[in-house]
Amino acid sequence: MAATDNHFKLTMLLFGLLFVASLHLTVGQVGTFFGRLGTNLPGPAATVTLYQQNNIRRMRLFDPHAPTLRALSGTNIRLMMGVSHSDLRDLANCPQAATAWVRQNILRFPNVTFRYIIVGNEIDPNSELGPFVFPAMQNVYRAIRVAGQGGRVQVSTSIQISLLSRWSPPQLAAFKCSVNWFIRPILEFLRETRAPMHINIFPFYAYINDRRNINLSFALLQPNSGVVLGGVYYDNLFYVIHDAFIAAMTKILAAASPLSLQQTPEMQAGMEVKGTTGIPSGGENAAPPPEGSIPFERNTTALSDGPINTNNNARTYINNLMRVVRTGTPMRPGRPIETYIFSMFDENLRPGPDYERHFGIFLPNGQPKFPFRFR
């Protein structure tokens, strides 16, 4: 009887460990972007409370915001925080500026759970800020290490699909030759520091760029809407864009000299990525941008399915997103994707087409626009 009891206890212990491991991989993988370009938004304290009430365990900020950092203190909400683009030059040119930035925006808030510092969001390599991104990343990383935070805060940057020369099929994706000077040292740096690349994955923009060839259900991540690309079945457009980045980054790193003969299993498995995604729920019907389109290469004659930026489509996309980020992609099966939804609220001061001001998933009064649940 005692042996049977011990066997039962061991079985339950193993089951419990597996259950905890499963929770670790699936719970809290999805966070939201807290943008502040609005005149009617709740304050930081109310917003942080809303995060806690809805089990949102990750937040992304575009830049440091002291009131929000104070509100986050002691909450254990994991933070991805950006660097203001206006600071990039100084951070790149002056290590002392990076030291001061870390002291001002990280060390002053010891009870905030900083996880990632994003140095530059979708910076065009050919813009005047392009040359400053990588040296700014280096200086911020060194300042964080000197401050004793290197073990818990990682430094990265955020890139978008326009840096790719093609992205479909994903296996053939590659960065534009004109941006190799920009992306290669960044990827080598991230591999060396074991930090993830942050990528912006917006099926919404891919769809409005190529409505004729991309079905709406595929862009909304609907089940049973997949296609075969390059001999590989892809369940949804989010997976396609994700794996296109993986393939393009892998090609760059394969051409670089290995860091050492004793790489860790994590490094051998390939660089990790984190993503931001979203979809507008209103505004004027989305029209294709005038230039910069990367066609979705499919042999199909599918016609446009109509406007994508509706409240019902946003509900469909967000709820499907909660499902698809848990299971991994064809290139990374079984590996959940840490993802940040853009955005927590509509921002009525955000520039651009009207739909840019309708990406929020909550109303300013804290009510969700549509039913969803953070796992």
UniProtKB/TrEMBL annotation:
GO terms under biological process: carbohydrate metabolic process
GO molecular function list: hydrolase activity, hydrolyzing O-glycosyl compounds
Keywords: Glycosidase, Hydrolase, Signal
InterPro entries listed in its UniProt record: Glyco_hydro_17, Glyco_hydro_17_plant
Record's signal peptide: 1-28
Family: Belongs to the glycosyl hydrolase 17 family.
The name this protein goes by in its record: Glucan endo-1,3-beta-D-glucosidase
Native species: Salvia splendens
